[in-house]
From TrEMBL:
This is WD-40 repeat-containing protein. Residues 100-175, 250-329 form the Potassium channel tetramerisation-type BTB domain. It comes from Planoprotostelium fungivorum. GO terms for molecular function: ubiquitin binding. Gene3D superfamilies: Potassium Channel Kv1.1, Chain A, YVTN repeat-like/Quinoprotein amine dehydrogenase.
Length: 633
């Protein structure tokens, strides 16, 4: 039959036509037989037809639902974007008409109209809500004031972008109008009309291919709006991060010219830079800022270089960069090593205060968090001093020499003595606890990360104590007196001994590492700011170690035994020796300064909260050295 030979599914009309025109199969068919056969065939085709129609309807319903979902997503994104934009506009509207900025210490005012002519980092910082004006209403920003004014001039008048401010415009995310239009066109492409209702109506009216094209446009428009919203959120996060970085401000007084910058900017000169040392926060900043006796205009360029990293600026101030010990890109670019005339900072050793009051050798000094100094002597006394040399308290109670002092996080002091005891004191002189258990002199004490105390003794042990006097652990392992103990930032404990080794311990007494290399007893150890350990002792050398026991540097310069070593906040370290000097070292092993003035062995050194160095000596005096980068020659 014609209908049966057709390879395609016939329409209902074709089926009926086939029934009327089909040839007879047999010469004398039964009317009932003919009707039943045709009826069954028709039913079969109808069943197939309805099933196919049902599948088409179901597929279309799914397709329709998918299209409507895409449309609703786009509509929701538009609402979110409009809401975000409205919130931003309300925040900007709430700003005063006149905006005041403190740009690197220079006060500049402009109008809100000028500032908002072009979206920028400044608008994002203002929108973030975290950028707060100071008491005078000025918003601080760590940039060059002259360049900032040029940026404002560009925002106000537009025109051709000058090369000298292109980097500044880039920093502030300011895009010239022509470039901004090109970027918008690239982002838009074939973007769909954002009116969603028209799109849905179009989807319902067009054929399948047109519908697919419209769906693609809807997806593209949705992605574009998502990109705009995500970029806006990321910009706000970047602006908030920049605002947070600017909260750590540093004031500088350069021959009367006031500058303000941030710790992050000062650190960009490298760890060896003198300016980076100001970012440590250990030196007290005067009301007028840190004094710097240099040309103010040249210094402004130094700050501009630190902020921007511009090689062009570095060319103009290479001598100033050398003076401040700042690693500039010129030498790196040319493959040069450090210039031979690069500044090596040395101390004016005449700038020292001498504190007298002890009747015997001063074996230990400690810098307290409140700016005072604690000293312990062989006269059995602990004295607390103001930095101006006034003794404010004397703690007595030990029966013999005071060999060590440490300040605890609760504000108390812990002291160790040759009377074999550790005592804990309030600052008014009251002894609150006595820790007994060692069988020989206590030579060193330190506070651990868990708030407990560790002590090292001539009895060759280290003991760990709670503040109520309970000994929780006794550590054995050294074969000589334990001269020095130091709590490490990783929660472990280090000790130096007369057996010429340094050991690192877990607080349960397990030895983690043993450092071998000294040829004489190790009398002092300290943790440096980079996490490494420095040790010094009966020989005239210092060694710097990684925690796995590798010696990275050997410092040679003292001419007699080293009794004390401490890390400094600027990344350097200081040592005191029987050769009657204090030396300041770079961690690469070079000696940066020698402080001379004591007439006896230097038994202890410590860095004070203002960056100066205190030293105690067998000449019965405590000296305070003005270790400040701008009081040096």
């Amino acid at each position: 039959m014609e209908a049966q030979t057709n390879s395609h599914s016939p329409s209902l009309l074709g089926v009926l036509r086939g029934i009327r025109t089909a040839p007879m199969i047999c010469p004398h068919p039964s009317p009932d037989h003919f009707t039943d056969a045709r009826r069954r065939m028709t039913d079969t085709f109808l069943t197939r037809f309805y099933e196919r129609l049902k599948r088409f309807r179901e597929a279309f319903e799914v397709y329709e639902a998918d299209c409507l979902t895409l449309g609703k997503i786009l509509e929701e994104r538009l609402k979110q974007c409009e809401l975000m934009q409205k919130e931003r506009e309300e925040k900007l509207e709430a700003l005063p008409l006149q905006l005041k900025f403190n740009v690197g210490g220079q006060e500049i005012e402009t109008t809100k109209t000028t500032l908002l002519k072009n979206p920028s980092l400044l608008t994002e910082m203002l929108i973030s809500g975290k950028w707060k004006p100071d008491d005078k209403g000025y918003y601080f920003i760590d940039r060059d004031a002259k360049k900032f004014e040029s940026v404002l001039d560009y925002l106000q008048s537009g025109g051709e972008v000058k090369r000298k401010i292109q980097d500044e415009l880039d920093f502030f995310w300011i895009v010239p109008e022509e470039e901004d239009e090109r970027r918008k066109r690239r982002r838009m492409g074939d973007a769909a009309d954002p009116i969603i209702q028209d799109k849905i109506e179009s989807l319902l009216r067009t054929k399948w291919r047109d519908t697919e094209r419209e769906i693609a446009l809807v997806k593209k428009e949705t992605n574009r709006i998502d990109e705009i919203m995500n970029t806006t959120r990321e910009n706000v996060k970047k602006a908030e991060k920049y605002v947070e970085e600017q909260e750590e401000k540093v004031k500088l007084n350069v021959r009367g010219k006031k500058y303000i910058t941030t710790k992050k900017t000062l650190r960009k000169g490298g760890e060896e830079s003198v300016l980076a040392a100001l970012a440590s926060g250990r030196w007290t900043e005067g009301a007028e800022g840190h004094p710097i006796d240099r040309n103010s205009r040249a210094f402004a360029r130094v700050l501009d270089y630190l902020r921007t990293g511009s090689r062009e600026i570095a060319w103009k101030v290479t001598e100033e960069l050398d003076y401040f010990g700042i690693a500039d890109p010129i030498t790196t670019w040319r493959g040069w090593k450090h210039r031979s005339n690069r500044k090596t900072w040395t101390m004016d050793t005449t700038r020292a205060a001498t504190l007298t009051g002890h009747r015997s050798c001063i074996d230990t000094v400690y810098s307290m968090k409140n700016g005072q100094i604690a000293s312990g002597s062989e006269d059995g006394m602990v004295k607390i001093w103001n930095p101006d040399g006034k003794c404010t308290a004397t703690l007595s109670g030990h029966r013999c020499w005071i060999r060590c002092i440490v300040e605890l996080r609760n504000g108390q002091l812990a002291t160790g003595s040759t009377d074999k005891a550790v005592k804990i004191w309030d600052l008014d002189g009251r002894c609150t606890a006595t820790l007994s258990g060692h069988t020989d002199s206590v030579i060193s004490v330190t506070e651990l990360c868990n708030g407990q105390i560790a002590s090292g003794s001539k009895d060759e042990t280290v003991k760990i104590w709670t503040l109520d006097g309970t000994c929780t652990v006794t550590i054995y392992g050294h074969s000589g007196s334990v001269f020095s103990v130091a709590g490490l930032s990783n929660g472990q404990l280090a000790s130096g001994s007369a057996d010429k080794t340094v050991k690192v311990w877990k607080l349960d007494g397990t030895c983690v590492t043993t450092f071998s290399g000294h040829k004489a007893p190790v009398r002092s150890i300290a943790e440096l700011s980079n996490g490494q350990i420095v040790s010094g002792g009966g020989g005239d050398t210092l060694k710097i170690w990684t925690l796995d026991g590798q010696c990275t540097a050997t410092l040679v310069g003292h001419t007699d035994s080293i009794f004390s070593v401490t890390g400094l906040s600027n990344g350097q370290l200081a040592s005191g020796s029987a050769d009657q000097t204090v030396k300041v070292w770079n961690i690469d092993g070079t000696c940066a300064a020698t402080l001379s003035g004591h007439s006896g062995s230097v038994y202890s050194v410590a860095e004070l909260s203002d960056g100066r160095i205190a030293s105690g000596s067998s000449d019965n005096t405590l000296r305070i050295w003005s270790w400040h980068p701008f009081l040096i020659f």
